[in-house]
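Troubleshooting: if your tokenizer reports a length mismatch, compare against these two reference records.
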Amino acid sequence: MLERTWRRGELELFRAEKLYTAKNYQTFLQVFRKNFPEYVYFCPFRRKGVISAPLDRVLEVFVPRDRLKALVEAGERDELQELTLEFVQLLSSEAKVPLEDFGVHGSIALGMHSAESDIDVVVYGSQNFRRVEAAVNKLVNEGVLTYIFNNRLDAARRFKGRFKNKVFMYNAVRKLEEVKDKYGEHRYTPLTSVKFRCTVIDDSEAMFRPAIYRIGGYIPLGSIHLPRDMTPETVISMIGCYRNIARKGQRIEVSGMLELIENTVTGKISYQVVVGSAESEEEYIWPVQA
């Protein structure tokens, strides 16, 4: 069962929203520098300011896995909390993923929810996420769940739906052993905006944020043609809506910022394209129809 919503000009409005966000990043930084300077950190490895909370300003950390455990152990639960727990237990059972590898976030995790709030679920681990993804699709085919597609990217991601007339969303978080990079191991230098088409050759980290797509078959679009040794090996999306929109073997069109990556330990040089760099006014990833 599919719940699909299409509106005239939807794609143009969607792209305009992303354009607006990118164009105003520097404005956000200026506001923070003026009013909350302690929340702006100059990263020497990216050579730019980023908005970041100082550790001494963090009073409490709400970990999705811990918030689900607290919900399970709660003596009393309201209707939405009961429905959330029922939904997570359903996914756990159908996907054969332990309950300990799930979490909740959003308003339910913070205890700030209302009867109108959505169910926001976290799945820990790449393989677990793929199992849950398959289980959700099976439950949709059986009529237990219903997909919600508000735009073309929702239809590609299939991460949103309804359970007993309540909207749910599920996303992936890396397990600790899936965190491969350490801060300071690489230095990043933005070079130029590029637009191209390519094939996804590895989607094992595409569901995370940032989403990582290993690519091949690079074909430039427009006037910029890169030397072979500068061809990017990966596409990185800092924008959440471009998570998990393409699978291995699929073609995508990308507009983003080409970055030079220098390993600060070995000196090795490689290249990637970042979508959501705030360096360019229009950056995106679109699945290409065969």
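Reference record two:
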Amino acid sequence: MAADPVSSAEVAGISRRIGLFGGSFDPVHVGHRRLAECALAQLGLDELRWVVAGQPWQKEMERVLAPASDRAAMVALAIADEPRFRLERCELDRQGPSYTIDTIDQLQAAACDEGQADARWFLLLGQDQYANLATWHRWQDLLQRVELAVAARDGQPPRASAALAAVPHRLSVLAMPPVAVSSTALRSALHAGTPAHDLVPEMLAAPVAQYLDRRGLYHSIPVRLG
């Protein structure tokens, strides 16, 4: 079942609700933004942290990412108008592969130091990420630390792998309208020479498109686009 929207009255007086939305954001697009907005509304979040991956371990052998500084800059532009959104740089500043559980350890420890030990944490996932979660580093530990919030695709409930289904975990399903956009499609269009401003507003926010046109990102990609 989809998570019901949580009113301010319902969340008043309880622990702070913090969402984590991780990804390479290569580049960030309107689908990311819509998922984040659904999470704010349906989970009653006080804040949503966009965690830009520094070295995503599952993408290391697939392709070369745009520089982390560019990906972070685009996310900052995409979220600037929503005060509950926050760019989280911890994976960019940390050495080595970006493992989600390490990020959760770091952020929850910092929250404890700031007097927010009782904060409630939600991890936003797409259905593909949810299905593959049992391949993640220390995934069983992750399930003990956060509640999963998974975007429903075409109105269908997310499906867990057999390994994941065997482990009890907290799950909210986010109802989200279909969005026909992906980072792969964006990279392909830009690589083919489409100006980024021609992809506004269907795929890109205007500030992100301006950044892409100025920087000329994805025009030359040395490895496969997928």
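Descriptive notes for reference record two:
- The chain is about 35% helix and 15% strand.
- Confidence is low (pLDDT under 50) at residues 1-12, 222-226.
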